[in-house]
Amino acid sequence: MQNTLTATEEQEPLVYELDEFCRTHRIGKTTFYQLLREGVGPDVFWLGRSPRITREAARDWRERMRARGRARTAQWAERPAVNNDSGQRRKPDPQAKPS
């Protein structure tokens, strides 16, 4: 059987403890538990009172979060541009330089 893990996945632990998962993904414990309550956190299993996250669950969660971010970006891009002073829709400035 051939090893199909990428170099990054080989460095990942098979199972994350809560502190390790939060540190690796740069989120706080409060955010972790909030994501779980909202139903958008990673799949966890419990050892006693401690959540554990498998490598695969972490990978799946990262992909779901990327997709969620892409969807939000698409929604934001579809919003009409509004001038804050009058509430009128802004017209593109033909003289403006592209950023």
| Helix-strand pattern | HEHHEEH
Roughly how many Å apart are the termini?
Answer: 50 Å
Q: Would you tell me the structural class of the helices and strands?
A: mainly alpha
By DSSP, the count of extended strands is 3
For the largest sheet, list the strands in their spatial order.
Answer: 1-3-2
- The best one-word shape is elongated
Strand content: 5-15%
Q: How would you sum up the major sheet?
A: 3 strands, antiparallel
Q: Give the integer mean of the pLDDT values.
A: 84
**Overall radius of gyration:** 20 Å
Number of helices: 4
**Spans where pLDDT lies below 50 across 5 or more residues:** none
Helix content: 40-55%
Description:
The protein has 99 residues and is mainly α. Helix content is 47%, strand content 11%. The chain contains 4 helices and 3 strands; from the N terminus they run αβααββα. The chain has helices at 7-11, 18-25, 29-38, 55-78, and strands at 15-17, 45-47, 50-54. Strands 1-3-2 form a 3-stranded antiparallel sheet. A hairpin with a 2-residue loop joins strand 2 (45-47) and strand 3 (50-54). The longest helix has 24 residues, at 55-78. The radius of gyration is 20 Å and the shape is elongated. The model has no long low-confidence stretch (mean pLDDT 84).
Task: Produce the secondary structure layout.
Layout: H1 7-11, E1 15-17, H2 18-25, H3 29-38, E2 45-47, E3 50-54, H4 55-78
Antiparallel strand pairs: 1-3, 2-3
